[in-house]
Each structure stands twice: as C-alpha cells, then as structure tokens.
Amino acid sequence: MKKDLLLVLTIESVVLGVVLGFVIRPFNPSNDTISLIGFPGEIFMQIVEMMILPLIMSSVISALAQVRARDARRIGIVTIIYYMTTTFLSTFTGIILVSSIHPGDPELIHELGEGTLENTALSTLDTFLDQIRNMFPENIIQATFQQVQTEYMPIKPARVRNSTSMNITTEVLHKQTLTYTNEMNVLGLIVFCSGFGIILSILGDQARLMINFFIVLDAIIMRWISALMWCYPIGILSLVCKNIIDIDNLTETAQALAMYVVTVICGLMIHSLLTLPLLYFLVTKKSPFAFMTGMLQALATAFGTASSGATLPVTFRALEENLKIDRRVTRFVLPLGATITMDGTALYEAVAVIFIAQLHNIKLSLMDLVTISITTTVASIGSGSVPAGLDTIVIVLTTVGLPAKDLSLLLTVDWLLDRIRTSVNVLGDSFGAGIIHHLTRSSLLEADTDELIRQIREDIDILNNPHQDTLPISHHSVQSTIQNTQNSMQAPHIYSKSARASFAPVPNEEERKALLKESIALNKSETHIV
C-alpha cells in the first residue's frame, strides 16, 4: 500500500504542478514569489544530487564485487552494444520523422525573431576525445567535482594581405586548450569503480572486509534515500510549477513551434512505445508493457526532475523490487546508462538540427543526414546525467555548417521536451537492464554457487531486511555448524577468512558450548530446522 501511495503521490505531484503553474501565471507573480515557489524543489534537487556520488560508487563496486571477471566482461560488452544500438535507432527515428513532417517553415523566422547563440569552434571529434579523457581521470578526487573539456581561446589575430588588392583582412585564430569545468566526472568514476569492483571479486576472501564496507555503504545510502522518497512529490510539484510560471510568451511560442513540438514528441513516443518494447520482446519473449507498468514511478520522477541522475535511486527500487531484476545488473547498467546513453537527447538533437536547416531553407543531402546521425549519436554520449543543455546541439550544427544562433529560439519549449526525453532516457536504461539480465541470467546463477558470492548475497539480504531475525537453515547447514563448532573448540586460534568478515555477531565461549549441545541434540534426533 505504501508503494502504491507513493506512486499515486508522485503522479499527482506532476499533474498538480502543471495545473498550479497555469493557474498562477495570469497573476504575474514577482521574482521573489517565483523563487519561493521553486525553493523546495531547489533544495530537493541538491539533496538528491548530494547522494549521487556515494550511491554510484557503492552501487558499482558492491555489484561487481559479486560478479566473476568473465561475467563482468560479458555484461559490459552487452551493455555498450545495447546502448549504441538504441541511441542510433532513436536518431534514425528522429531524422525520418522531421524529414517527413517538415515542421520548419522559413516564415517562422519573422515570427520568432533572430537568435542570439554563436557558433563554436568545437567539433564532434573534440567531444569524443573529451569523453575518452574523462574515462581515465588523472586525479580520482578531482573527478568527483570536475571534468575535462576542450575550449578554443582567441589569440592575436593574423593579418592577411590580398595579392590582387591592397585590402588587409583580419582573421581571428583560436588555440585549443584543455580546461576543467565544475561538473562531476561520472564516466571516470564509473570506470574507476568498475575496475575496483572487479579486482575485489578476483581477490575474493582476502578482500572480504573491503567488500563488506561497500555493501554496508550501499545499504546505508539506499535506506537514507528510502526515507527521502516521501519528499519527492513535494520537490517535483515545486519544480514543475516554477518551470511553467517562468516561461515567457507561452501562447505565441506554442503557436509558432507547435509542429516542431509535435514532431519531437511523436518521435519520442515511437521510440519509447514501439522501438524499445519491440526490442525487449524480441530478446526476452516477455510482455514489455507489464515491464513498463513496474516503471511508472521512475518515469513520473524523471518527468518531474528532468534529471536521469536524480531518478537513479527510484529506478533502482523499481527494477529490483517491482520487476525482480538482479541487483548486480542494475547497479552497473543504470549508472552507466544515465551517463553515456541518451536516447531521447539524441532524437531531440537530430530533430532540432534538421528543423533549423528547414528554417533557413537549406537542402540537406543524404550525406549530410548520415553525418547528423553519427554526430548526434557521438555528441549525446556522456552528455551527463543532469538536465541536458544546448552545447552538444551547437557542436552538431557547426559540424554540418548550419547557423547556431537560431537554436536559442527553441529554449521556450525546451522545458517540456527536456522532461519527456529524460523519461525516455530512463525507460531505455530500464529496458536495457531487463534485456541484459535476461542474457546473463544463467551465468549469474552459476556464479551463485560460489561460496563467497553466496555469503555476500546473504549478507545483503540481512541488511535489506533488518526485521527478518532468522533465516531458513537446512539440515546441511546444521551439519556444517556442528563441524565448524567442534573445530573451533579444538583449535580456538584458527579462524576462516570469511568468518572474520561476517556480519554475524561472534558468540562467546558459553554461547558456543550451548550451541554445540543444542546442535548435537538436534543431530541425534535428526530434526530439520526450517
């Protein structure tokens, strides 16, 4: 009942935020009033983003520490293939739709006015190389709050004299430099944590103490987030309401860009309701719509926050508790997906680029469309788990030689499209987790026969179910307990490595003797404890 109530409150907060926003708009509230309306949402986002760093680190390390190295390699390869495939399919869908509907009319330029953005010297190659650099940060502490970004700084202009005339032209030159921007390098942290977790898995019992540390840290963060789940509806209501109040010239812009908005939304709907479910059904032979039903709360949260990272804790809970996806899959696939894959963003970028070309009546060749599809796919990789900006679209526009200044005209409708494409991003990541779990289920079940992995999973169950005092004990467990207790009585100075790191309390001498007598009595009577 609590889960259903939280789902209802989350959906109602989105609807109520939209209604309140449109009700308050006609009163033209002051800037102070708007700030106060959005203040709970601002604090809510800061609290959630505060949790992202420890959540990602503990989740990835604790998950991969329970996976054999060959299974981790397989999960990683399948994950990358899935994300690249879905991103390209979403881009292709957007290009087909915008070319068919043709929402860009050159007359709209007169209605919307001139844009203000400038072209950038950055290329798609620069963006791709930046992602490779960020994968391997030189300082892991710095990666928690900064990442590398290429910038072009203007230098002393060169003066060029024409040979045919005495005219002198000035050419502005730019120098490429690497700078650090104040944004968490999630991709670098995931790569570091992946390697860390795999090495822990290889070390096994020798690293049990460190494995327990990250398991407990993950349990603490998830328990904390569970307590904060009831604050999500308040934060979402505040964010949605403030966004709608802040929009300038809503009616005029909606009329001018109506076909553009319809094109983007149709593309996102086709990708989320046709492409992704069809891919899931072909691989798993299961109903994709039953899967989507279990993801409703995560999708509503994604729409309300417009952030894949802020939705990550809700997505974890939806997949693991509602859909019973193995946590070893979700804890690796979802953080990676929230960072490197942006299906909705790639589709949105492709439509925006071709829409601007249509505004200027520029005919794009087949080669231009192929270039756009590749560059938008690359540019959307690593675009971050925070609300997406316009930087990547500017890079794509510059690559195909289109003016970037008119992109600012689309900002007035971006508040809505950003929320919808974030929901599509989260849905794509979730379907990916379901597909990867299906493909790797047999190898993960085989790994569960390993004694260390079995103990770790039991410890996680104890942490996640603190009210469960006792676990079922089989006859084999009783025999093992008797043997271990007898050995410990004969040689009390010898302890196993796994026992040394166990969460179970260590009994004193009297408790051991009592346990031994009880076990021997049970063994004689051949009583099975269940």
UniProtKB/TrEMBL annotation:
One of its GO terms (cellular component) is plasma membrane. The gene is Cni-glt-3. It comes from Caenorhabditis nigoni. It is a multi-pass membrane protein. It comes from the Eukaryota. One of its GO terms (molecular function) is neutral L-amino acid transmembrane transporter activity. InterPro entries: DAACS, Na-dicarboxylate_symporter, Na-dicarboxylate_symporter_CS, Na:dicarbo_symporter_sf. It holds the Pfam family SDF. It is found in: Membrane. The keyword Transcription does not apply. The chain crosses the membrane at residues 5-24, 44-65, 184-203, 224-245, 257-282, 289-312, 332-357. Its main location: membrane. Keywords: Glycoprotein, Membrane, Symport, Transmembrane, Transmembrane helix, Transport. Belongs to the dicarboxylate/amino acid:cation symporter (DAACS) (TC 2.A.23) family. This is Amino acid transporter.
